[in-house]
Amino acid sequence: ATDRVLVVPCDMPYLTEELLRHLMHFPDPGDACVIEEGGIRNPLCGIYHRRILPVIEPEIRASRHTPQYLLDLLEARSVSVTPDLPFFTTRLLANINDEADLRSVAAGDRS
Q1: For residue 92, how far is the Cα from the chain centroid?
Q2: Alpha carbons 1 and 19: distance in angstroms, whole number
Q3: Partner residues linked to 6 by β-bridges
Q4: Mean pLDDT calculated for residue range 90-103
Q5: CB 22 within 8 A of CB 79
Q6: CA geometry: angle at 3 spanning 34 and 19, to 5°?
Q7: For the chain, percent of residues with pLDDT exceeding 70
Q8: Are strands 32-37 and 40-49 parallel, antiparallel or unpaired?
Q9: Distance between CA atoms of 68 and 85, rounded to whole angstroms?
Q10: Is residue 34 within 8 Å of residue 78, measured between CB atoms?
Q11: What is the pTM of this model?
């Protein structure tokens, strides 16, 4: 068993091992450690400690499922993803939900 779990969204196919290692080696991850770009946290790409279960289970039972809301309840840290990182690409955090998104990213636009 492990104390932490890595959560990765299925609609971000350009995430890299380097980014995930960068996230995993954050010095003080707290209850949760998620990626952030442009001041926006992405709670679906992060590392969560098992000690958060007593905090999030009542929220789930109460149908409060918003990941951003859950982050506000936790001692959450953010790891900024910026162009100065050696593994950064413009599509690193691209969110692909349909064929139009995929075409847009393939053409060099950000989704």
Answers
A1: 12
A2: 24
A3: 47
A4: 91
A5: yes
A6: 35
A7: 97
A8: antiparallel
A9: 25
A10: yes
A11: 0.86
